[in-house]
Specification:
The protein has about 260 residues and is mainly alpha-helical. It is built from 12 helices and no strands.
Amino acid sequence: MEEFDRLVEVVATLRSPEGCPWDREQDHQSLKHYLLEEVYEVLEAADTGADEKLCGELGDVLLMIVMYAQIAAEQNGFNISDVIACITAKLIYRHPHVFGDVEVAESDEVVDNWEQLKRHEADTGPRQSALDGVPKALPALQQAQELQKKAARVGFDWDSIEGPWRKLFEEIEELREAAGSGQDEAIAHELGDLLIAVVNLGRFLDVYAEDALRAGNRRFEQRFRQVEQQAAATGRELSEMTLEELDELWEQAKIAQNR
């Protein structure tokens, strides 16, 4: 805890009248953007598997947490000790199979108990819906997956993966029909339904749609950059090449990436 205490002291100094003007200007609202950015940098570091980078990015997130707590303490609210005490108590409360006498046979039972306990916690109040507790600010794909997981826990789910497959192709056809109508609102509506169907299929395949899309984005970026390099080697711009030539370069980049 010595290093953590030192971090708390450093942040308090930065926020003091003798500290840093930028740090003193921050409040809970202004830090939201920075916290979100740092969390995404943690995800990127985790995806790369680079421990040193992940360690550094986790430190940046920890800094944001300490900053939030310091600002609250200056306003006679909570402090970092309250934050730690809160999460410690919550972990003990939500793990009665570890710290109490509740017995569980598998991880699914742990999740079920966790959700039941969350519904009755005093800090959140009684839950009005099985879908309560999914943050509105989550990325849309992740939000869709969490909503579907919660609905599934109360029995609103397909009996087998064949259901999500059928729904996927059904939504594709409905999007095709909407596209044929030329009505923008209908097209957006059906595209949203199709994306939800894809996320639901991913859930049955034990794939997080948000992670899958982020990985897909990385592959696309890598391949496209390779295409740019291959085109540059010929002394031509991409805009000067035919679709067939670009497709050939893309396939070459794909083969190289798969190696």
